[in-house]
Design goal:
342 residues, single chain, six-stranded parallel sheet
Length: 342
């Protein structure tokens, strides 16, 4: 299939991950949009990580065009393309992608605050992780150098949590602009990944950290609080910080980390392995497969679509084809943070 992705070409972005995922599945992928060089998140990354546009030749005829950016200038540039033009939006918790000319919206956050999945032309397709860069750690859990890692934009609540942990004596590593191999190396050498999401979103950091073998400790996103969506995700083995959802019953971040690494250390290790096992099916490659299958099946008769959907076993394809999300019982989660808070 010939696929054209349109997005801003930041060094790290979902469009880049998906372009690679489609290529791994044998598709002919081109990508266009503004080049953004080395600057991202207010920092500068090494030159080898710059992602340049790869424009198609004049003879390239796309079977599918995917908008993978929430930039209004890009969203407003698609009218009259003549082939399916879809959105894969990972920012629907803070942005609205809707325009008159898009065929379908694949949205990463079912309960996205700004554009939740509610319309017939919208379906849920969560974020994922890159299986090439973010591989499982080979360092034993007990032998890792850091207790907690938090890499990303250091919003005030993230910085405050890491400062509190450092002052309490935990070995922490935090920062912005650390990407790809360096990002993976630090996660491989950390026991806990702190995932604090201010906008109630299940970000790709959750999937990446779990895939690399960190215990995910985070403020519980809406798509995991909901039993329906939690069952489809099938994730289990992380720990949630109730304090960030309920400030009235604030519990220091140090309590959770101390409990995970001391009182409940064995349970933490077991839960981490379970989360890692369950997250393996959530690579960006699986997201690319869902979209490609949707393109192939969307115009078939209902019976044929249903048979193909059942054969695929893909709940996100089922949703995209108009059959709704399946009812899957949310997995039992053995939380190691169930100790009593005095």
């Amino acid at each position: 299939m010939n696929i054209l992705i349109v997005c801003n070409h930041f060094a790290v972005c979902s469009g880049r991950y998906m372009a690679a995922a489609f290529r791994r599945q044998g598709h002919n992928v081109r990508h266009i949009g503004p080049a953004k060089g080395r600057e991202i998140w207010g920092t500068v990354v090494p030159p080898q990580y710059v992602w340049e546009p790869n424009a198609p030749s004049e003879h390239f005829e796309p079977n599918l065009i995917i908008c993978m950016d929430s930039d209004p200038a890009i969203l407003d540039s698609f009218e009259g393309k003549g082939v399916p033009v879809v959105v894969y939006g990972v920012d629907n918790h803070v942005r609205n992608y809707r325009r008159d000319y898009f065929t379908h919206y694949f949205l990463a956050h079912y309960h996205g605050q700004v554009q939740p999945v509610t319309q017939d032309d919208e379906s849920w397709l969560p974020c994922g992780y890159d299986p090439v860069f973010f591989t499982p750690s080979r360092i034993p859990f007990d032998g890792r150098a850091y207790d907690v890692v938090m890499l990303g934009v250091m919003y005030p609540e993230r910085a405050a949590a890491m400062d509190e942990l450092a002052k309490a004596g935990f070995k922490v590593v935090a920062g912005t602009g650390i990407v790809y191999e360096a990002y993976a190396n630090l996660h491989h050498n950390a026991r806990i990944a702190l995932c604090l999401n201010a906008n109630d979103d299940l970000s790709q950091r959750w999937f990446e950290a779990a895939a690399m073998g960190c215990h995910v400790l985070g403020s519980q996103p809406a798509d995991i609080r909901d039993d329906k969506t939690a069952g489809v995700l099938g994730l289990a083995g992380f720990s949630t910080i109730d304090a960030f959802a309920d400030k009235a019953n604030d519990v220091p971040i140090t309590f959770w980390v101390d409990n995970l690494l001391k009182a409940a250390r064995q349970e933490c290790k077991e839960a981490t392995l379970e989360m890692q096992r369950r997250v393996m099916r959530h690579a960006w490659d699986a997201r690319a497969r869902t979209i490609a299958d949707w393109v192939m099946l969307r115009d078939l008769p209902e019976d044929a679509k249903r048979d193909a959907m059942i054969h695929s076993g893909d709940p996100f394809l089922q949703h995209a084809l108009g059959f709704g999300l399946p009812d899957i019982e949310a997995p039992g989660i053995k939380l190691p943070d169930d100790a009593e808070v005095e």
